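Lab notebook, bench 4. Still working through the backlog of constructs that have no structural model yet. Next entry is a single chain of 524 residues. Request: give me the structure tokens for it.
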Amino acid sequence: MTSLRYLLFTTIKNWIKELRKKPGQLVLVLFVVAMFALMVVSTMVSDPTKILDHRNITELYAIIFLVYLFIFLFTAMHGFSSGGSFYSMADVHLLFSTPISSKKILLYGLVKQMGTSLFVGFFILFQYSWLNQIYGITLPGVLLILLGYAIIMFCGQLCAMILYSFTSGNETLKRILKTIFIVVGVLAIAYIGYPLLSESDDILGVAVAQVNSPVLAFFPVGGWIKAAIVGCLSGDFISILCGFGGTLLFVALLIFILTKTHSDFYEDVLQATEVSFSAITAKKENKTMDVVPKNVKVGKSGLTKGWGASAFYFKHKIEKRRGRVFLFDTMTTIFFIITIVFSFFMKEIIAIFIFSVYMQFFSAHTGRWVRELTLPYVYMVPQSPFKKLFYVCLEGIEKIIIEAVLLFAIIGVVVQLPVIEVIVCIFARIGFGLLFIAGNFLTERLLGSTGNKFIILGFYFLALLIIIAPGLAIGGVVGFFLANTGISIFAVVLGISTVWNILMAGLIAFLCRNVLDCAEINNQ
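Model written out:
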């Protein structure tokens, strides 16, 4: 293990050293750390008398279980398609050709994947503020939730690797195991939802009780880790022992299966590693992958509408139909469901709206129009750049509008909002979505497509904060003067902010209208 240990620590050391040569990454890292420190300090020094009573902590336990269960199932299901891999292409070239035991290489991959899972879950730490204010969770408690997230990701990746290894050449076994996954998931949903059919007074309380029932604590990995984390938060030693013990035995069993019954795993992970490497490389270079999906919903083919720039809109409509889950793509559907579930637990519309915009930030700042910039066709259409820009983004704008209307129509019923506040929230979310798209125009115009991704992301985030701030400030001032008139301050602030965001989005789009004029400019 000496060489593998040296490789692991040298990789970490070199990554730290590289920050000195890449000031963009260093600035972004320092900015993230500073924001986290500021959030922690501001939460700790806040007035504790502002919140007299915290919400029932069992609600948080239910949220933890649902998040863990979804992440595990979603990650493990990748084993039926592309599989999972703990390695990079550098690992493949350096390790797979050496006379090192496959068990040691597997252990190296497991340790590396656990570190990656912790790094990916860093965003959980930024939930500390509202978790502390609403449920009274301390910083060590948030760190425990992060640890549980890392374990869930780790187990999901390991399970995906096992599933891919044993089902990649056996379609019958793949269908059987996939059916078992779906059936078990449906049974869990039915167990939670069945008592709600006869409950009309306290739906949330009944749902939370069902999710926290001992039956679901036996659900593989998701239930075990949730029980362990809840045990740590509540001081229940038996839950800690059973949860972590069951997970440890599960991991040991998977490793035993992989090493004993399928010891030569090089070929099994090589293809998954190559697919992952191709996706990462394409993302860095802002290119599309030359990989054809195994299953594509073709249906009706061909463009029957559109001429010139408008053809891109109908092209995106076809791509959306082929890749959607129900009305939206997979990521948007996931964020849609998460936001609705959040509204059941959080009855404050301000917190719900902020959370919905937070989710929208991850889904609306990219779109099909970004991929068009990597292809030559949009630049060859003999029409004005602004017209091409409009039609290339029209499908994304349409999705933002539909999503906002459906989302807050449902949230309005859940939270029992007045109609005027529902309408304001719909328009406000549309305004933020348009501004997120316009923010991409700005970064594309100023930084191009091939710059440092960390610098681009940092600039994008800071630019949005600077653009949004005046609208919120003006809305706050106007709301302050109208406080005694009986008008909802929340509606006033959002209404003025919406007008500001839409105007700024239109101005940015107009000023950056030549972003599709010349492909060479975007590649500088």
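Notes after review: The first strand starts at residue 324 and ends at 325. Residues 286 and 449 are 7 Å apart (CA to CA). Flag for follow-up if needed.
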